[in-house]
């Protein structure tokens, strides 16, 4: 690749930089990203090989054909090296993360001025324009996720700050890695542009999943777990039917899962707001005696010691399975009041709570009231979390920063348990489910081992995150393969449906010879099928449709001299096109010469005998472009369904939903892919396997009939605090 390329020069700027120590979280992200990009690159290289083969097959000259075959050979020979260099370049990005100003400077340096155009080769300029367009599109499409990642990586890496941010997953850096990996390919600019187009389609366009996964890992590590960003968030593609390709401009906080959350600076502010609202509604009597009344106010230390004597398992389940039964909200205020009633100071005065401690106990109660009423939690996980009411009360009394700090270890663990359990449905095979066993074991260890030392939550949180990382890495790879498989399957199905529909439309009103009918239905239909699938890049679908029209027209007798002149000019290229297409799909290879000779005789017979009966009265005009999916227009959509369609259109890749069946059972799944060609959505379970596929209209009907719920995956404690604040504002208004 030319050194004048606006991407390639970044390597030279970064080569001298000293490698930074790679933080553990960055190392985990590097491994996941390297594996994911490696799979995407393999898909791109396969597509490049297919594209070059097709171009060679349709070449107009031997020289042109040889050039494409030579490019194919060059890429095949050097493929392993390309993959190896790309993996090395990606690893190097995490060891020496580039700064945005370096990438921007290099891109600007690669854009020649009018005075420099004479110094830049035409081919280099074409390649440079294609690379810059690819980068700009990715930066616009994944803007929201990239802004969050840059902030989090800058926080993660040492010796970086807001003035010198870094982002090893910037699109310009990924494109640079692709440029470096393919730099020694000896191919012409036309083949190189074909290669860049497939890189854009298969690698860069699919960065969203990897960006989201990197954000999730950093959030779980406590790196800016809640993020506020003003601007457009186009992290995910919207559903078909949206008037634009992005979500509205965001003026709300964005958390790790893309749900409304809180800025770290606002965590303390929200807590103080809640405490103020609680103080306003505080009753004259506390949990024991009136606050500030005749009772003796216990100190926080004394209260901590009193609550420390509570046995967590007294309020748990009597069975080994802690998820058995219904979640029960404990009356924490009554429990504390009972403890205070038995506690007397040395002067015999009854004990009472301070106003701040009373507010904390009330807030813990309201927190779990929200949790136990939260439909986003699956029932077994909800029961398990309900067992933690006493331990969390102990934590809050011991460390009052629980509600003020989003990164508090106990709060992080509670959020992680709830987030992981969103995709878990009730099952009779709980004992064999790794996720359930891990959540159950974590809750059980808290109940049995927590003695006031908050380090236990740090340990459990680290173990749980490591477990989730292993499970989600495997699930992400399975989901990626599922998504690619479903895209191919659905597009193939739509292609076959369109080909069958069009051929039926064109042949249903004509009486074609049996051999011609067989040739169209069993031979030329394959050519049309492939043309439909590749129409985005090759634009040959209209030609294959026109061949059907031309063949039927030529089989009709024509008396008009102009029509007969047109027939003479049309038949030779028509026969050549038919033969080439049928050879390409291997239609009756051993009999093709005989079939084409017979067809030629039938056409000649129609020309020689203009008085014979026509095979059709007149050609039926048809659209020469692929038929758009008609699911949404063919079905009657009333105002009620249209209202629910708007909610369906807000669904994003990665959002969880719950379907309820007629027998009362339900299952949870995640939106994995939006197939525009079929106007449908593919959902997978938490292992990445396909669960269901539905059109957006069908989803709107499910939502309208109450058989579909859209689930929230935002941090549990954050959502609970928002709900408590809203409830308190309403009650004190």
UniProtKB/TrEMBL annotation:
<feature type="region of interest" description="Disordered">
    <location>
        <begin position="233"/>
        <end position="267"/>
    </location>
</feature>
<feature type="region of interest" description="Disordered">
    <location>
        <begin position="613"/>
        <end position="634"/>
    </location>
</feature>
<feature type="region of interest" description="Disordered">
    <location>
        <begin position="91"/>
        <end position="115"/>
    </location>
</feature>
<dbReference type="Pfam" id="PF07793">
    <property type="entry name" value="DUF1631"/>
</dbReference>
<dbReference type="InterPro" id="IPR012434">
    <property type="entry name" value="DUF1631"/>
</dbReference>
<feature type="region of interest" description="Disordered">
    <location>
        <begin position="1"/>
        <end position="26"/>
    </location>
</feature>
<feature type="compositionally biased region" description="Polar residues">
    <location>
        <begin position="1"/>
        <end position="12"/>
    </location>
</feature>
<protein>
    <recommendedName>
        <fullName>DUF1631 domain-containing protein</fullName>
    </recommendedName>
</protein>
